[in-house]
């Protein structure tokens, strides 16, 4: 087990990619703190980790609330691994994007990770080590219709990844992104419609299928672990070749 004696904080750990990541980190011995708004979903993740012999704690928190975010950071103790995974994806044509959902997608996908990292990275740096993985999207790397605001938030997150790699690298903190392609998670299937999403999987990438959350989690685990000790500041597509084909 490569993450024994390490503490990981996974935002959005109650579902989808965040849950699969929390399970993968716990399997490797990390104590995992999962944060998100739904206490019930977080409890299910903790129960899954404990059933597999791992250790975890749920911290219900709305990351759009900066006081709640601060309490989460303060209460988390010594965090070795931070996975900024929580995100919202209000796909819609640009002229229809209302101000409220525009602000919310930037608050959740950019402001939350920014201030959580601002609180935790210096503490990692003081210890001389740490790994931060941001969950971006192929929408940051390719033009996708109806995903302008969402894609802009994920491109911002990739820019933060590079800046933070430069800013904190000298103190032993690595910062990377993964950019998932179309990944079959319950909420995304619900939001986009099962039929259309399956079709995107079949035709949208060279492997001809949707990704599984566990496949994204394996890439996050690699970037979080010492196996990637000389990698920082990169965005790794986990997308069945979607970006490569263009
Ligand atoms: N699935 C894909 O095809 C795909 C592709 C590219 C990128 N991604 C990215 O992958 C990440 C995970 O997505 P997913 O597919 O696993 O969908 P998901 O299951 O909906 O995951 C999003 C998570 O974020 C949490 N969250 C949302 N707003 C929050 C807030 N204000 N405070 C705290 N937590 C919040 C949600 O929990 P609560 O609702 O309980 O708060 C949920 O657990 C997202 O950043 C998404 O943009 C997904």
UniProtKB/TrEMBL annotation:
Protein family according to the UniProt entry: Belongs to the short-chain dehydrogenases/reductases (SDR) family.
Pfam families referenced in this protein's UniProt entry, alphabetically: adh_short_C2
Organism name: Nonomuraea jabiensis
A single GO molecular function term of this UniProt record: oxidoreductase activity
Protein name (record): NAD(P)-dependent dehydrogenase (Short-subunit alcohol dehydrogenase family)
Phosphoprotein listed as a keyword: no
The entry's keywords: Oxidoreductase
Domain Ketoreductase: 6-181
Keyword ATP-binding: no
């Amino acid at each position: 087990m490569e993450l024994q004696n390490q503490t990981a904080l996974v935002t959005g750990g109650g579902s989808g990619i965040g849950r699969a990541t929390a399970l993968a980190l716990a399997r490797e011995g990390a104590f995992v703190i999962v944060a998100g708004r739904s206490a019930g979903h977080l409890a299910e993740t903790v129960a899954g980790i404990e059933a597999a012999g791992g250790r975890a704690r749920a911290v219900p928190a709305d990351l759009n609330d900066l006081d709640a975010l601060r309490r989460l950071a303060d209460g988390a103790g010594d965090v070795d691994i931070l996975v900024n995974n929580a995100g919202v994806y209000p796909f819609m044509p640009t002229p229809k994007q209302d101000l409220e959902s525009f602000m919310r997608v930037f608050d959740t996908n950019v402001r939350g990770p920014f201030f959580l990292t601002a609180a935790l990275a210096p503490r990692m740096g003081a210890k001389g080590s740490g790994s931060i993985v941001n969950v971006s999207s192929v929408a940051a790397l390719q033009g996708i219709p109806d995903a302008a605001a969402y894609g802009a938030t994920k491109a911002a997150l990739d820019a933060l990844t590079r800046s933070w790699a430069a800013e904190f690298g000298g103190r032993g903190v690595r910062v990377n992104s993964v950019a998932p392609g179309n990944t079959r998670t319950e909420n995304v299937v619900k939001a986009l419609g099962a039929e259309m999403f399956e079709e995107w999987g079949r035709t949208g990438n060279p492997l001809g299928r949707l990704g599984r959350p566990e496949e994204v989690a394996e890439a996050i685990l690699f970037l979080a672990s010492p196996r990637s000790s000389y990698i920082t500041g990169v965005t790794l597509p986990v997308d069945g070749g979607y970006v490569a084909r263009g």
